[in-house]
Amino acid sequence: MTRVRHWCSAAATAGLVIALGTVGSMAHAAPVPSVSSRDTAFLRSIHQANMAEIASSQHAVAHGRTACVKQVATILVRDHRRLDAGGVALAKRLRVSLPASPTAMEKAQFAAVKAKTRTAYDAAWLNLQARAHNEALRLIDSEVASGRNAQVKAAARAARPVVVRHLAMVRGGVCHAPSAPKTHAGGHRAQVHSDRPAARH
Q: Does residue 9 lie in a domain region?
């Protein structure tokens, strides 16, 4: 009987230690900041947009007809990979699940561009990028204005100037690739070159 009492006491003590350890680890675990449905929707939508941009721009690097389109597409692949890596890491920290592929509409738009041949391909790709980046800006501005999670809003603010730069390269469906800055008296000025034919006077 004495042995039974000792065993029960030891078991109870061990259970208490385990319970206290669990409570202690929970108390020291960093709480996950609250994420609103808007924040979640933004992280998912912008991830899909990044995936679509990376895929379509990789294709343009290989199949674009002009050096300008190939250069802009290379920049877009690099920048959207960086943006997406940050977004994926943030979603993981906030325990937000992300879709595995772009939306059906994004896939259909990309398929339509891939179906184009010769110079029609470049024009279709540039117009797609202009629409996509305008939509990305709309998503970003909506999150900055109405999002609730500070980390998600900060990520949106950080992404905005990158998307603005991209839009400047494809605005109006015309390619404007950045070139090396030229030095002038009084400072430096960034240059761009365009695939649009020069105006004749």
A: no
Q: Whose structure tokens read 């992300």?
A: 98
HEC assignment per residue over the chain: CHHHHHHHHHHHHHHHHHHHHHHHHHHHCCCCCCCCHHHHHHHHHHHHHHHHHHHHHHHHHHHCCCHHHHHHHHHHHHHHHHHHHHHHHHHHHCCCCCCCCCCHHHHHHHHHHHCCCCHHHHHHHHHHHHHHHHHHHHHHHHHHHHCCCHHHHHHHHHHHHHHHHHHHHHHHHCCEEEEEEEEECCEEEEEEEECCCCCCC
Structural domain includes residue 44: yes
Q: Classify residue 188: in a domain, yes or no.
A: no
Check which CATH number belongs to the domain holding 45 and give it: 1.20.1260.10
Q: What is the mean pLDDT of the chain?
A: 82
Q: How many domains does the chain have?
A: 1
- Please check whether residue 195 lies inside any domain of the structure: no
Distances (CA, A) of 6 to 12, 31, 178: 10, 39, 80
Whether 107 contacts 54, CB under 8 Å: no
Cα–Cα dist 149/94, whole Å: 10
The residue segments making up the domain with residue 131 are 37-175
Residues 11-42: tens digit of each pLDDT: 444 444 443 344 344 344 455 668 999 999 99
